[in-house]
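Q: Structure for this?
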Amino acid sequence: MSRNAKFRVWRGDAAGGELHDYTVEVNEGEVVLDIIHRLQATQAGDLAVRWNCKAGKCGSCSAEINGRPRLLCMTRMSTFTDDEVITVTPMRSFPVIRDLVTDVSFNYQKARQIPAFAPPPDLAPGEYRMQQVDVERSQEFRKCIECFLCQNVCHVVRDHEENKTAFSGPRFFIRAAELDMHPLDARTDRREFAQAEQGIGMCNITKCCTEVCPEHIKITDNAIIPMKERVVDRKYDPLVWLGNKLFRRGND
Amino acid sequence: MTGVSAPGRARLGVRTLREDRWWLAPLATFVGLFLFVVYATFRAFQGAYYYFEPYLSPFYSPCLTTDCVPGSSDFGQPISWWPLSPALVILIFPLGFRLTCYYYRKAYYRSFWFSPPACAVAEPHRSYTGETRFPLILQNIHRYFWYFAMIFGVILSYDAILGFRNPQGQWGHMGLGTVILLINAALIWLYALSCHSCRHIMGGKLKHFSRHPRRYWMWQQISKLNGRHMLLAWVSLIWLVVADFYITLLAHGTISDLRFF
Ligand code: SF4
Ligand code: SF4
Ligand code: FES
Ligand code: FES
């Protein structure tokens, strides 16, 4: 069954742009990315869009649909009513290159700042042994496909460009939590790093990152809040600090 | 504006393109919390109609000042210099606990401070520093309020047990008020045990669950509760009002307690 749908797509670049109206054919079972491709093939041959897998696994096709951060390839046309006008715009927190394609290098800079996994000094590669219960929590975070929708929706940088230097964003808080919870990571300063270098204190746990994550990672509950609590252990809790001094804990 | 219309970003000219009713959730939260604050403020300052044998309103428990009505002070009246309502002496503990709660923070940052009002809806503020400076950096003391919340859990449970007396102080009786206070104590426990700081303290802080099987088990149970923290925050809040209002009506003589035996 096919029908015609009304689309508004943002066309332009850093110098400016506007929403263009299109009427385009939609078939049963299609997703928004299919329609964008049909536009390219029929009416707008130079429309720029980034995509790779069309299966929600590469994280390339992030954009905003009716104002909400979504993957173009995972948004089914059947979720809209027949007469709804569907507005597709590029992600709003990153510089636009052209049309739906943005420059996401902010995220790669933040990724590079995080100290890598530190191998335990007393074990040679190949001798690592870990219990499933100890790595389970981190495995949730490994599902991340780096679509950066969470980075895009986060109001700390979306609404305040100037915070980009001090704030790493939710995707990198889950990386911080993953390493701090890693049973074999030898670094002991991950919490200080999260607070001083990544700016985890700027997050006000309003959970938009969790709302948009296409992998349904509980970013706020399972990574950011636990990480904030770990920072409290180090920085703001004299009882824990004293306990660690007296009983030489810290290797739990 | 420095945010969504910062140089280099796609120019859209509006703060959001969302057309769904994104304002509904923050509005409902605002109304709910506002009504609670109005009711609780009035009742806390009123300093009357909080005790009806054998029930003590949770807003006034424990009742510690010499102004407390006879019978309402289970733990004595050590405070004689307090000129205002006895509820205000202890208010800081439950208030501080809920104000620094991770869920309520989300709720009021969104609905009262519009930071942000909803996801992908630009906030109105010119600058933003989150929880990095005074006063919001104080949110980090949440776990201390949680320790006190444990004490309040015990006290409110004790109050509920005292409800198994009749108005003459004899044991082995029960009324509708007893049930209301029992539910209140249970909800306070569930709310406090589902707390994110509790989840951290019970086991979340560990690096090796495998070395602490008991704490791992506790962390798993708390995690289940924690998934419902928002629900428990609301239900326990509403039930506080139910319990207090019931006791007020009894104390006013508007209704009489439904006695079971
Ligand atoms: S919870 Fe924190 S990191 Fe996630 S979107 Fe909100 S402010 Fe950003
Ligand atoms: S955490 Fe989720 S939203 Fe963020 S980059 Fe990874 S998959 Fe995308
Ligand atoms: S194209 Fe790969 S996630 Fe959409
Ligand atoms: S997080 Fe809500 S009570 Fe602790």
